[in-house]
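For the sake of transparency, this paper describes our internal protein records without simplification. The remainder of this section carries one protein's record, kept here as part of the documentation:
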Amino acid sequence: MATTALALLFLSPLCPAKDHFEALPEKASPEVVGRKLSARFVASPHMFWTEFGTLHYAEVATWYGALNFAALTKDAKLKQQLVDRFEPFFGAEEKFIPPVTHVDHSVFGVVPLELYRQTGQVKYRVMGLAFADGQWDRPDSEGLSNQARYWIDDMYMITALQVQAWRATGDRKYLDRTAKQMVKYLARLQQPNGLFFHAPDVPFYWGRGNGWMAAGMTELLRALPANHPERPKILQGYRSMMASLKRYQSDSGMWLQLIDRPESWAETSSTAMFTFAMITGVKNGWLDESYGPVARKAWLALVDYINEDGDVREVCAGTATKNDVQHYLDRPRIVGDFHGQAPMLWSVAALLRPAGLLMPAE
């Protein structure tokens, strides 16, 4: 199993243990929430792309969250269930593996790479690296992935995969190229207020799109060495975004479907992504103490959106770009969609993960 670059686990000056995430009510305990959501995932059918018939990226993101929870809690039974769920992709379900042709498909590689890290089985590494390397097949003239489309969603899909490839191999090229890509996206899409348009020609601050960006920066900052040349720019972009989110948090603790539009509705997937990003930032000293109560308030609000079945409510449906504000305000609100289940599990992991720990406990 890859253990390269362990010296880089602690990448920034760490603050003392934070009390913002302690003494949580029972229903908000990360262990309780994580068990409930992971059990729901294990019992759920696959989520497929309607038009392609292959596994959907939202399931990949949820699977990754459940694997992190299993590792952090040393839950061998859950880990085996998650391994067993994947085994058919080497046989009867091989037809459901996405092609390495698009950011939303390529992110599939995150799961086998995490399975490799947790089991040491080389077959997972081979499969996962095929996606990570395929994402940089025929790079553009600037050395960036030809899968880039400059939607903010990309900077989770690309970043998560490349960071996982680095975690599995220790090869610096995976960090270098995704950091370069992130800086390019920051320059093109981040606005003066720290938030992001969904795309250059779509001037709306869509919640989950911004959430993907927040989560991508967070995963990358957990991995980048303190002396990496791109780290200051990425950290600056992250802090600028978090400062804006702090201002826009609603009184309930939630963030809205369109972050700056008070007429829009409280949306769970974006709130969970921002919560994951803030918890991680506070624990690692990237954010000051004032963000601790913000993240705690958001987490306590979120747990009330989990129903008895372990399904998260008020999740925005998958959303393509459109230069029409009503398009975003009228998006369907779904119960139990993996877009919402996934970041709740990431937040669980952030609450459980010790400060500075790059990888879940093996």
Observations:
- Strands lie at 315-316, 333-334.
- The domain at 6-352 is CATH 1.50.10.10 (Glycosyltransferase).
